[in-house]
Request: fold
Amino acid sequence: EPEVTQTPSHQVTQMGQEVILRCVPISNHLYFYWYRQILGQKVEFLVSFYNNEISEKSEIFDDQFSVERPDGSNFTLKIRSTKLEDSAMYFCASRTGLEPSTDTQYFGPGTRLTVL
Amino acid sequence: GDSVTQMEGPVTLSEEAFLTINCTYTATGYPSLFWYVQYPGEGLQLLLKATKADDKGSNKGFEATYRKETTSFHLEKGSVQVSDSAVYFCALSRNNQGGKLIFGQGTELSVKP
Reply:
């Protein structure tokens, strides 16, 4: 069964450093998402991406964040200068379309980001 | 704005007990409603979904009915197992807004033998 994959599973970085989190969505999916979950809190939407551009972003997704689909398979989230409060589990998700029959989002296993 | 509210956990049950996890939502129109499950150390897995009023989603013995009149989507299971121990998230999406998911805070379920 196709699945969303994410690398690395755990990333430790120093405050102020840049990190890139990588995701490979399911191959025929068209909509891509990043979410984050701070330990013990709810899962929060960061950004959605369709047709090679951001379709929506939350207030969390400020200028320090960017997303890219560089090669038609990978979907990356970059944090330019990490802060302590960026420590969280980051989930990538993808879906086929927006119709009710295709609107299920499939999640990757997550990348745990620890900022020291 | 849209929001989802779940009953607080943790919920602790004995094996074979009946489970209800309450979920209510605030949204205009007819969002799609979902239950996702997160097993320890893993990502989010879709458990079930419903896309219109009075639809019932079901999977692995779990059920939830989309109640427009009470804006609810409560999760139920008649007889829980130890393997059901996980965190359960209720969520909604509105497809005319790019389909982002809005999650409730999650409810941790612990099932004891």
In short: The mean pLDDT of chain A is 92. The two ends of chain A are 37 Å apart (CA to CA).
